[in-house]
Design a protein that fits this description.
Strand content: over 45%
Number of helices: 0
Number of strands: 21
Strand order of the largest sheet: 1-2-21-20-19
Radius of gyration: 17 Å
Length: 253
């Protein structure tokens, strides 16, 4: 059976509608780092050392090994862009080695690598909107704000944007543009999903946790990544169809 789509009921909400969950087949080294979708609703799953492509129902289409450590990713015009750090995360400048790896979206062939040295705490996630890439990443303890780094289509650095979020554990892990706003997933246990406007002004903080994947889906929803640890440091993953900032607790700025 290749079709791995399932419907589940969220605990405590059995009187409400079923929540759709799409299961990524297989297990991989390192946990789920991010999700991306294309115009056909194929799903791209980034694990620490693997890149996986499925169709919208979870049928496996392609998988390739990748360097440690891959992060969040985005799809643009037939290519998959993955934030990669080959150095240390969450340290002061000088210890990260930040890149964007660019893959063909059909067979996941690695096409090109672009250095993004401005990500001095480690490149960990990225998204695209209106001709610009936004790359996010790690953050050392003691900082009181997060950063979003803007690049043009050729990865020429444009600007570092400041997000007045306060410190979040290990910075920002995932990001996407959705419903007229930027969304940023963090490892915070409570209200770790940040929402900003197009100028990166903080609009609110929400539950649940989107730190291992957020990607636009259909019918005004997003996919929320869920990681499932397995034996021998392997991991599997799934994606829940959700609506960030709309179905959970009130935002807290």
């Amino acid at each position: 059976m290749h079709c791995l789509i399932a419907a589940i009921l969220v605990a405590g909400l059995s009187q409400g509608p079923a929540t759709q969950e799409i299961v990524c087949p297989g297990t991989y080294g390192g946990h789920l780092q991010g999700l991306a979708t294309d115009n056909e609703q194929n799903i791209y799953w980034s694990f620490t050392v693997a890149l996986v492509k499925t169709n919208r129902s979870g049928e496996l289409l392609k998988t390739v090994s990748a360097p440690s450590h891959q992060g969040d990713l985005t799809w643009v015009d037939g290519k998959v862009y993955v934030a990669v750090n080959l150095g240390k995360f969450n340290q002061e400048p000088g210890q990260a080695d930040s890149w964007v790896y660019i893959y063909d979206d059909q067979d996941l062939t690695l096409l090109e690598k672009k250095a993004v040295p401005e990500l001095v705490h480690g490149a960990g996630g990225m998204a695209f909107h209106e001709g610009k890439f936004i790359v996010v990443g790690g953050l050392p303890v003691g900082y009181s704000e997060n950063y979003a780094y803007e690049y043009d289509r050729d990865f020429n650095f444009v600007k570092r944007h400041v997000i007045q979020s306060g410190y979040t554990k290990m910075g920002i892990q995932t990001t996407c543009w959705f419903d007229g706003a930027w969304w940023f997933g963090c490892y915070e246990d409570d209200k770790g999903l940040l929402k900003t406007d197009e100028h990166f002004t903080l609009l609110g903080r929400f539950n649940p946790n989107y730190s291992v994947g957020i990607a636009p889906w259909t019918d005004g929803n997003c996919l929320r990544g869920v990681n499932h640890p397995q034996e021998n440091k392997q991991h599997s993953a799934s994606a829940v169809v959700d609506a960030p900032g709309k179905t959970t607790e009130t935002a807290e700025k």
